[in-house]
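Researcher: Next sequence.
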Amino acid sequence: MTNSYRFFQNKECEYFPCHKVENEEEFNCLFCYCPLYRENKCIGNPIYFLNAKGQKMKDCSQCEVIHRPEAYDKVMQQLQRQDEMISLNIGNLREVIWERMAQIASWEQMDKRTHRQHKGMAVSSIGEILERNKYLYRVSILLQPFSGQCVKDGYFSFGNDKMQCQVLSRIDRRQVETGYLYAFHAPEYEVEESKALLTQYYWEIFQIACLDVVREWLREYLQRKHSVYEKRFCSPAFGAGFYGMELSASEKMLQLMDAEKIGVSWDGGKMKPQMSVAGVYLISRKDILSDCRDCANCIGQQTGCVFCCNNPKK
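Model: Next structure:
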């Protein structure tokens, strides 16, 4: 192979090749020192050990991934990544999920005996499904940060793409430091037809409750993450159909995030799986949405209120 910006070989190096390989002619010296060494999740297969100070260290002596001919594209792709993938164990949020299920199913409006019966049946049937399929406890979440400069008067700007969002005309955009696109889906499980209709109903309620609880967990997580040195505020989660964001925004957000990495896609005019969500969080120095609670359920139509009628979309 010839030397180029993607491949370089230095046979005069006293250590060439610094790893044992079958074909020295394809040994790529371009990344002499691995630029991904400090990455928690690199593209190689390192071995970890504890040093004399008790610190976790990488041993990459048996890894030759970055010295392969095709290494350039993979390394550059990894270095350019800014997204964050979280594997959340919803088992730790069970009590909150049960409470949210009670609200959705209006169990509080039932008499105490009926309330106990429904909750007991729901907890038992859902718990049985989860225990038999423990992988359902894990929810994969994709977070992708964006600059506060993307927040404009009435819309988000991502390169050549614009996403209309009326509430952005009402907030103090100077307070916004950064934002996040997010996407995830609720645990997927097909309840057997032989199961009682109530079990199928409870499972759907459980999925909806998971979406709500995980969104709130994410908001708290991001607020803690950005409040290490100074107090910061994370907005409620909002997306297509909330806070004046156009209904067509979901497809754009999934494309921007490459959400298929976590199994969420756009298919036939809707998100797939059915119980999927995508949206936005804003991180700001002040609570910028405190005066816009009336916009929470706005679906982004100009005929919705006097404010939007007087501020047509650009």
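Model: The first helix runs from residue 71 to 80. The chain has a mean pLDDT of 86.
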